[in-house]
Each structure stands twice: as structure tokens, then as C-alpha cells.
Amino acid sequence: MSSPTPAMPARRIRVLLAKPGLDGHDQGAKIVARAMMDAGFEVIYTGLRQTPEAVARIALDEDVDVVALSSMAGSHLPFCRKLKPLLEAGGLTDKLWMIGGNLPAQDHGALRELGFAGIFPTGSRLEAVVSYIRENAP
Amino acid sequence: MNDRAPVEPKAVINESGLEVKPLYTRADVDASGGEAMIGAPGEYPFTRGIHRLMYRKQPWTMRQYAGFGNPRDTNQRFKYLIANGQTGLNVAFDLPTQIGLDSDDPLAEGEIGRVGMSIDTLRDFELAFDGIDLDKITVSMTINGAAAIAIAMYLAMAEKRGYDVTKLRGTAQNDILKEFIGRGTWIFPVEPSIRLVGDTIEYCARHAPKYSPVSVCGYHIRESGATPAQEMAYAFCIARAYADEAIRRGLHVDEFAGRLSYNFNIFGNLFEQVAKFRAGRSLWAKIMKEEYKAESPGSMWLRMIAAGGGGGLTFEQPELNIVRGAYYALISALSGTQTMALCSYDEAYTIPTEYSARISLRTMQILIEEMGLTETVDPLGGSWYVETMTNQMRAKMEEIIAETDAEGGIVKLISEGAIQAKVSAQAYRMQQNIESGAFPKVGVNCYRNEHEDEHPVEFHPYNEDDARAQIASLAQVRAERDADAVARALARVGADARDGANVMPAIVDAVKAYASVGEITRELVKVFGRYQEPIRF
């Protein structure tokens, strides 16, 4: 059986899902990873305890479209402050930067200013995360 | 007369996979195994409670989880809780401490004192427990990867203050296997981690026999997605792994089993939870008596802390978490737990403020003082529903344990990431069920407020100055201590780890010389290596 060869196979959206810092609560990250895979994205999950340097390096090496962080233990701001210049130095400013987890509303402005455009606090729906990526990934 | 065809009610299946009937009678109790497995409170198999009079003699211990900032901050919170009627302490450590890093480690930046108090040296234990009578209030420590060091520091601190450690009571969580499933504060690979747990059990059995060196923690397994039946079955599998390790060292089961305790979760269906605890008590008693040939009743007791239930709390309409917390406490009381640590309503956001911690304490006090929960033992005993469900939950747990054993045992399955994959797949299904509305969650998928971003939660502040003070305090201890004594003690920790000796005596000497958590951990890492997590979906 022959099938027509597509002229250019559509590239699947590639997402780096990272657990920053020392927080070990990764069930939320794993749930989001499964939802993204079900949505047809390619997901690279880093596992626990990633440094900003490691996150930036993996994002570059894996040529991802989306850099997504999952943070539950309150250290999101110091981490994102360190990650931002590293992502910029890696030429990743055109990628979609996102963060989810235990993120109080009072910190959302600061996260947005750092370039983390997609903010999904605990309680966000999986379909909201997925459709945000579909609509905003470069 | 109604001539329409009778409507069959929709099937109801609880989280553990058991069907719930619209009505129960004695016939259901008989069909599920009868009354034989129930017995009386204080008698084997302890389904109705491990003590004859339970709360009538003494209410449960109130032990709220607390700790933040540096040891001085935490000391003040401890004193506040005690002043408000708390009867036990449950110490939260920050993430650097939990994974064996000093506060001046570059990886600790931004994490010092954030989710618990920071501990670097024995000096910090001295500050944290200053002015607290360790004979009057027992201390439980939530730490696992670095538990051997924390136990050594606690015992050394108590000894320095003149307590007789052979009589000292207290508990360390020290359940490393569950850390690989959920929570993630592991340090060493699986096998040396179990060896360290064995070292603490053996050391405490010989030197601090009233101290509980392990509190097996189904709690986090459930938080990671396990069903109530799996939570308890996996916890028992893990406890058996530690018991096997202790027996391999030549201890008799009755020398240590009486000091093993448990930490369980509470959110979900009230009757399923109560049945879970009643079933769990009788199953653990059976495992200890029949499998391990324990003779002392204390070895067969499922002693436990319950009432956390963090996974049941919601980010939406956080004030409803006060109501949920009250029901969790009620479930715990109906379950016959020894100790409660009730989650505070703001814990979906932040670590508890004094205000929210006090509400949790008052919730438990209302049950004791106003609601009559301490007056009669096992008040749900004899309910045809609860007794049937108890028998069915026990059979379900036995089925899960048999399946785990048949697949190669809990240690192998955790090493391969197989248990992690199983509970994570379940967590995903549960999230989908919540989003679809199949699993109702008030305020989340039904009865939502129009303006969901109006959250009346006051945040516990994070103080960067406390972190700086902690680093300065560590530098001062390093400058003042006897450097040669520290070097000698650390060398012995490494040597004993390499030789396969019990490392606890060397760690106790090292902490007495004010060696730090990070320094001792580095010695152990040189021998044991670090864990590399298998990533499986």
C-alpha cells in the first residue's frame, strides 16, 4: 500500500519540562508531561534538582520550542532570575518560557517581567496548559 | 402502584476499586470474612485499636508539622504551638538539610529555611530546642535522606542537655524507600540507603531503645497518586524491607518492631479511610505475628500518625480547606490514630502562618472537648458497612502485597521506577477525572466561585536575612570548633562506610565535634555514590 509522501512533515512541538532547584515534588510535572505527550508534543523531562545552567544547556542541546518549569517549594523567583540571562545567552529568547506550580499571585508580575509569559499556578487545568502551548509556541 | 421497571442505581466504585452497595446487612459482613478478623480493642488483630481504652485514657497527640527560617525562628514557632496546646512537635527541615547540603553550598541558594528550618551543625539543634523539655514533649523529625545525621544530632543534643538517651522518646521519619516514589529527597542509591536505615534501627535498638528510628510513610505514596489500599500495602512492603534488613543484622523482631511506626494520609471517602486504617491494623498484626513470628504485642501494633491530607486541599476557595481539615481530623479520630498532624488551610499556597496553624490545633481540640470523639473506643465498629469494607480492604491490600512480591519485591520495583510509573499514571487519571467532573471536587469542578482569583490567604513571609544569618552562623561554628577532631571524625565516618560497619557511632562522634550535615554527607557519598533516578512514564 502506498501513501502520498507529505511535502514537509509537520515538526512536533518540543517541550523541555524541568524541575528547578531542590524541590522533589514532581507528580505535578509528571502529570503535565503525560498531558503534553497525549497532545502530541515531544517532551524532554529533566528529572529532579536541575541547576539554571543545566536547564539552559538542555534547552539548547535539545533544540526545544518551549522551556517549562515546575516549582512547588517557593524558590521560583530566585531560580528564574538566574535562568533568564542563561537562556538569553543561549539565544533562546524567541522560545516560549513557561512556569507552573505553587506560584502565589503576588509573584506573577515579577515572573512575567523575567520573560515567563505562561504562568500556571496549582489548580490550572491540563487543557489550559496544552492549548496555551499550541497557540503560543514559536 | 408504580409499574415502571425498577431503576438500577449507578454503580459506585471507591478509589481502591471496591464496589460500594446502597445498603449493607449482616450477610455482607459474613460474606466478606465475618467477624473473626475484628476482635476487641487492645487484642490481636487490633482491628478496633491497639489499646483497650484508646482516647478514653489519653487523647491523640497533636503534632502539627512546623519549621521555617533558621533554628531561632523555628524555636519561637515551637513555643507558640506548645503555648496553644500542642502536645508533640513535628519538625520540618528545609530542602538543603533534607538532601545533605550545608547552607553555604551554592545549590542551597534561594532554598535556605524556605520549606522548613535549616540545620548545619549540632549548634542548630541546640538553638531549635532551647527551652523545650524533651521529656514533656516528644519530637518527630520529617527527614529521610539525611535522617542518620539528624537522629545523631538529636540524640547528641539531648545527651548534652543531660537527658538519659536510653529513656528518650521521639521519632524520625527515616523512610527512604518512599522518597524514591514521592517527595524526592533522596541522596544515596537504593541499596546503601536501606543499609543506612538498618544502621539507625540497629543503633537505636542498642543505644536509644525508646526512640523510634523509622516512621514508614504511606502518606507520600498516596500524595503521589496511590489508592488508599495501595498506600497501606506499599507501606507494609517497605516496612518488611526494613525489618528484613534489621533481622539480617541479627536483631530479633521483638527488639525493634515495637519502635516502627507509620504515617498515613487521610483525604478521600470517609468510610474507605476508616476501613483502610482498621484493615491495616489487623493486616500488620498478622504480618508481624505469622510472617515474622513476633511474640510481643507491641511488635504487632500499627502505631501511626494521620490527618495530613494535603493532597485533598484545593487552591480554589482555600477557606473550604478549613472544613476539609475538620473532616480529616474527624476521620483520623474515627480511625483510632495515635497522633494527628492536621494540614492547615493555606498549605496549598504557603507554609502555615501562626493563624492557620492555630485553626488546625483548635479543630482537633473541638473534637476532643466538644464532639465526644474521645469518649468511646472505635465508635464505627459494628457498622455493617464499615465492617464489610474493612474486611474487603484487608483482602485488597493482601492482593496488592502478593502482586508486588510476585513481581520481584518492592525494592526491585522501586529501583526500576516501576512503582513510580504506576502511581504517576494513576495521578494522571485522577487529574483527568477531576477536570472532566467524573470525580467531584467542590470549588474545583463544581460550585466554583465567579471570581476564583480572590484568595483570602495571608502569606507566610520569607526572610532573606535569616538565610544570611544561617550562613554566618555556620562560618562561626567552623571557626570555633576543633578542626583536627572534625577531620578525624569525618575520616572515621568514611572508613566505617567503606568497611561495612554500622556508621551511626562514627556519625554521632562527628556531630559531637560539630561536623556539618554537608561534610558528613560528602564522606558517605564518596563511598555510596549518589542516586540517579530512572525516568519512566
List the helices and strands and how they pair.
The complex is a heterodimer of chains A (138) and B (537).
Chain A: E1 14-18, H1 27-38, E2 42-45, H2 52-61, E3 66-71, H3 76-89, E4 96-101, H4 108-113, E5 118-121, H5 126-136
Parallel strand pairs in A: 1-2, 1-3, 3-4, 4-5
Helix pairs in contact in A: 1-5, 2-3
Chain B: E1 12-13, E2 19-20, H1 26-31, E3 61-62, E4 65-66, H2 71-83, E5 88-92, H3 95-98, H4 122-128, E6 138-142, H5 147-160, E7 170-172, H6 176-181, H7 190-207, E8 211-212, E9 214-217, H8 218-223, H9 228-248, H10 253-256, E10 260-264, H11 270-291, H12 297-300, E11 304-306, H13 320-335, E12 339-340, H14 354-369, H15 384-406, H16 410-416, H17 418-436, H18 464-480, H19 483-499, H20 504-512, H21 517-528
Parallel strand pairs in B: 3-12, 4-5, 5-6, 6-7, 7-8, 9-10, 10-11, 11-12
Antiparallel strand pairs in B: 1-2
Cofactor (chain A): adenosylcob(III)alamin
EC number (chain A): 5.4.99.2
Keywords (chain A): Cobalamin, Cobalt, Isomerase, Metal-binding
Contiguous helical run count of chain A: 5
The average pLDDT score of chain B comes to 94
Considering DSSP H and I runs of 4 or more, what fraction of the residues of chain B is helical? 40-55%
From the coordinates shown, what is the CATH architecture of chain B?
Alpha-Beta Barrel
Do you know the CATH topology of chain B? Answer: TIM Barrel
* Arithmetic mean of pLDDT of chain A: 93
Terminal CA distance of chain B reads 56 Å
Strand order of the largest sheet of chain B: 3-12-11-10-9
Any descriptors?
heterodimer; A: 138 residues; alpha/beta; Rossmann fold; 5-stranded parallel beta sheet; 5 helices; 18% strand; B: 537 residues; TIM Barrel; 21 helices; 12 strands; 49% helix
Structure description:
The model of chain A has no long low-confidence stretch (mean pLDDT 93). Helices cover 38% and strands 18% of the residues of chain A. Chain A has a five-stranded parallel sheet with strand order 2-1-3-4-5, with helices on both faces. In chain A, helix 1 packs across helix 5 and helix 2 (52-61) crosses helix 3 (76-89). The longest helix of chain A is centred in the middle third of the chain and has 14 residues, at 76-89. The N and C termini of chain A lie far apart (35 Å). The radius of gyration of chain A is 15 Å and the shape is globular. Chain A has a single domain (14-136), classed as Cobalamin-binding domain (Rossmann fold, 3-Layer(aba) Sandwich), CATH 3.40.50.280. Chain A has five helices and five strands. Chain B has 537 residues and is an alpha/beta fold. Chain B has a single domain, classed as Alpha-Beta Barrel (TIM Barrel). Chain B contains 21 helices and twelve strands. In chain B, strands 3-12-11-10-9 form a five-stranded parallel sheet. In chain B, strand 11, helix 13 (320-335) and strand 12 form a beta-alpha-beta unit. In chain B, helix 5 (147-160) crosses helix 20, helix 9 (228-248) packs across helix 15 (384-406) and helix 19 packs parallel to helix 21. Chains A and B meet through helix 1 and helix 3 of A and helix 3 and helix 17 of B.
